[in-house]
């Protein structure tokens, strides 16, 4: 990857709908050159795809939650297979730490979420430890969502 590739990635990271011409103007190359750079990054796996970010609160009902799992090393692959097949889970990540997995799920309400997590723990062979948390809001996506008083409290000032 060269500097041009990095510049293109910075632009499309925030807006993947930019045209080749718009990217080219910003980077200082032709639209054809932009297409060639992007095609090469797609082929090499640097760009895995393009996605639309949707405000879930405006479109979907229910709550989002995270699940952190510690799996027994000998059963890790089976736990991952089970989680991949779980339609309530939207995202599944491996994380640092021995055999740790982080998932993001969605449920219609807290009771259904709790039932789902308990079912996973009690019926998935190889889960050693599990914890879960309800996601409240995406603070990065909500510009200005933290007021001055709240920001001071979060920083530990009086």
The helix content, as a percent range, equals 40-55%
Structural category is alpha+beta
CATH topology of the largest domain: Alpha-Beta Plaits
CATH architecture of the largest domain: 2-Layer Sandwich
Q: How confident is the prediction overall: mean pLDDT? A: 86
What fraction of residues sit in β-strands?
15-25%
How many domain modules? 2
CATH class of the largest domain: Alpha Beta
Q: Compute the CA-based radius of gyration.
A: 21 Å
**Main sheet overview:** 4 strands, antiparallel
CATH superfamily of the largest domain: Lrp/AsnC effector binding domain/regulation of amino acid metabolism (RAM) domain
In whole angstroms, the N-to-C terminal distance is: 47 Å
Question: What's the layout of helices and strands?
Answer:
Layout (H helix, E strand, L loop, with lengths): L2 H12 L5 H8 L3 H14 L11 H4 L3 E9 L4 H10 L3 E7 L4 E8 L2 H14 L3 E8 L13 H8 L3
Antiparallel strand pairs: 1-3, 1-4, 2-3
Helix pairs in contact: 2-3
